[in-house]
């Protein structure tokens, strides 16, 4: 028996800066998880992952991450993905400064 598919987002790291980014429904890479396209179909998720991974001059390490619908867009369901939404934690800059 196969597992039920859970909603996903496509995430990667921007090649130049290393920042975490998320693939949006209009094919942009956004630094904000809530702007990501929430994918609820397994076949569509695989197609979006292939689309993201093919952009080798823009991003690296694209993969599907579990997510759930939220009031302002997708929300991460795993602590690792929650941590990635905030950026580096050694001092407040970038996303950390924006959330402070």
UniProtKB/TrEMBL annotation:
Residues 67-100 are annotated as: Disordered. It comes from the Bacteria. This is DUF2849 domain-containing protein.
